[in-house]
Specification:
Mean pLDDT: 89
Strand content: 15-25%
Number of helices: 10
Shape: globular
Strand order of the largest sheet: 6-7-8-3-9-10
CATH architecture of the largest domain: 3-Layer(aba) Sandwich
CATH topology of the largest domain: Rossmann fold
Low-confidence stretches: 1-5
Largest sheet: 6 strands, mixed
Structural class: alpha/beta
CATH class of the largest domain: Alpha Beta
Radius of gyration: 21 Å
CATH superfamily of the largest domain: P-loop containing nucleotide triphosphate hydrolases
Helix content: 25-40%
Length: about 280
């Protein structure tokens, strides 16, 4: 079912077309980001997930269509003003060499600072709270580049939290991390939505982790939204086949009722034949 535009959503994309130079990636996308929920964008490589996130975040200008933040075209608004309302963590951010964790997190306060108007106490409190929430306080004086991948990612999330925005967009925040670290980060982001009322939009690759933590799933293919809804509505064998060309069984976790996909293994005879065929080449 198509993702309809909710009339009261703070962040919406309407009939978006976007891409890079002469290559179109998004083809008429409509999306309303659910308030106070964790929404995950899923799709195969090249489906337009990251392009959609960048367009919604104002880092990529659409060739047609509009992005609205609180009813106003986000691409016509002041950059600093937008940054006080919307935070974004791009894929694979890199900190300058030698930058400490405290300095990195403090960068999140930039949108709130003016040459003639700074609230040092408010900035310090925001930084301290963000670091405590992401459990990186003990690393405050450490260089970011000396930390593990999971620790660094927590520091980047702390920087976004220090912006104190209600809307947070994250592009593949768990990529290249161990499974336990991925789970810990998704638990943290889930609490942000469910305990603190933040609105989150994530791009993820892991199907089962997305189904386990998302309130809403949006599946994309060929620059379009194919289907969207709750995990139980969207995470079906038919949709996995259509969107990912994946043959899989869908089962449900007996503890939380969340769907899980289990790829269908090829029969042993087919596997043997394929192996023999490769050996003959």
């Amino acid at each position: 079912m198509p993702f309809s535009l909710a009339p009261h959503a703070r962040l919406t994309g309407a009939n978006l077309y976007a891409g890079y130079e002469s290559r179109h990636v998004l083809n008429g996308v409509n999306l309303a980001v659910a308030e106070g929920k964790l929404t995950v964008l899923l799709g195969p490589n090249g489906s337009g997930k990251s392009t959609l996130l960048k367009t919604l975040a104002r880092t990529l200008t659409p060739s047609a269509g509009h992005v609205y933040l609180d009813g106003k075209d986000i691409h016509r608004r002041n950059t600093r003003e937008v940054a006080t309302q919307l935070g974004i963590l791009p894929q694979g951010p890199i900190a300058p060499e030698g930058l400490t964790v405290n300095q990195l997190v403090a960068m999140g306060r930039f949108p709130h600072q003016r040459l003639w108007q700074r609230d040092a106490r408010k900035d310090a409190n925001a930084i301290s709270e963000a670091m405590a929430y992401t459990n990186v306080t003990d690393f405050a004086e450490h260089s970011v580049d000396t930390l593990s991948g999971g620790q660094r990612q927590r520091c980047w999330i702390a920087m976004v939290l220090a912006q104190q925005t209600d809307l947070i967009l994250l592009d593949e925040p768990t990529t290249f991390l161990d499974l336990k670290v991925q789970v810990d980060l998704l638990e943290l982001l889930s609490r942000l939505a469910h305990e603190h009322g933040r609105t989150l939009l994530l791009v993820l690759h892991d199907l089962n982790l997305a189904a386990a933590y998302a309130d809403h799933l949006v599946m994309m293919r060929d620059g379009r939204i194919v289907t969207s809804g709750t995990p139980s509505e969207v995470f079906t064998a038919a949709n996995l086949k259509h969107v990912f060309d994946l043959d899989a069984h869908v089962m449900y976790d007996p503890e939380n009722g969340r769907p899980l996909c289990i790829p269908r293994a090829r029969p042993a005879s087919n596997t043997k034949k394929a192996s023999q065929s490769r050996g003959a080449l």
